[in-house]
């Protein structure tokens, strides 16, 4: 649950407590969204249902998570939906996995760092998708021979993503999609070349840039705070020949 008052916001499970500058919040075990709870000092907070942006802002982080704008491109370009199965590597904080789980996607995700994987499991519970997300500790590249294919979506956010892309045709169901996030253009190029070698189709690479707009008394223009670059997304699709 998200417990909110003005700019103050906390993620709490029913039955948990939170110390704040306005007093201690004790969230009832049977709390529901819309409930107003008071701290021991009598200050009111509203309980709300967690939504996607709340996950990005409040899940415990073990590194830089994928940005919502990148996640939106993954969802929009692949059309992933409820009932699909996704194979993911580079779990990290688990924001992408959580977004997919909230769409009704069953996700198997690999994280090399055991501590990061443990945090990701806790984050999946916080997001309410623990039953749909299987967070595994390990390196997907070491498990490829044991992984059964037929996935609708393969998402990668690892330095050695190209090694997995080379075998994407073994992992994806016919018509399935590949989506790779790369912070560097060199790794994006390596993934494109690997996708070509694997015989994937509809290969394209996008640089994601988002600019905020500033509106004031002088006029309107894009913000000068930065270009809003996050990284590169490589998309492809497994479309095997029939016959």
Describe it.
Keywords: Methyltransferase, S-adenosyl-L-methionine, Transferase, tRNA processing. It comes from Natronomonas moolapensis (strain DSM 18674 / CECT 7526 / JCM 14361 / 8.8.11). Its EC number is 2.1.1.219. The chain is of the alpha/beta class. It has 2 domains: 2-49, no CATH class; 54-237, Vaccinia Virus protein VP39 (Rossmann fold, 3-Layer(aba) Sandwich). The protein is 27% helix and 34% strand. The strands form 4 sheets. A 7-stranded mixed sheet has the order 9-8-7-10-11-15-12, with helices on both faces. The protein is globular and about 70 Å long. The termini are far apart.
How do you describe this structure in short?
The protein has helices at residues 52-58, 68-78, 95-102, 114-127, 140-143, 161-165, 168-171, 185-197; strands at 2-5, 8-11, 17-20, 23-26, 36-38, 44-48, 85-89, 106-111, 133-137, 151-156, 172-182, 201-209, 213-216, 219-222, 229-237. With 243 residues, it is an alpha/beta fold.
């Amino acid at each position: 649950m998200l417990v909110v008052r003005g700019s103050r916001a906390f993620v709490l499970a029913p039955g948990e407590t939170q110390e704040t500058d306005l007093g201690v919040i004790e969230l009832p075990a049977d709390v529901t969204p819309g409930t107003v709870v008071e701290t021991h000092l009598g200050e009111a907070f509203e309980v709300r249902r967690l939504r996607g942006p709340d996950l990005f802002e409040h899940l415990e982080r073990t590194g830089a998570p994928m940005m919502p704008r990148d996640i939106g491109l993954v969802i929009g370009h692949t059309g992933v939906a409820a009932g699909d199965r996704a194979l993911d590597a580079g779990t990290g904080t688990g924001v992408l996995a959580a977004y997919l789980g909230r769409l009704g996607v069953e996700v198997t995700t690999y994280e090399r760092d055991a501590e990061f994987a443990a945090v990701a499991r806790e984050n999946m519970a916080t997001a309410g998708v623990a039953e749909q997300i299987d967070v595994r500790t390990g390196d997907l590249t070491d498990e490829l021979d044991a992984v059964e294919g037929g996935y609708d979506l393969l998402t990668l956010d690892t330095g050695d993503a190209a090694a997995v892309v080379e075998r994407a045709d073994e992992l994806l169901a016919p018509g399935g999609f590949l989506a790779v996030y790369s912070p560097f253009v060199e790794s994006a190029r390596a993934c494109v070349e690997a996708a070509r070698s694997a015989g994937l189709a509809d290969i394209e690479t996008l640089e994601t840039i988002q600019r905020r707009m500033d509106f004031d008394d002088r006029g309107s223009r894009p913000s000068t705070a930065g270009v809003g670059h996050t990284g590169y997304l490589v998309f492809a699709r497994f479309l095997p020949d029939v016959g």
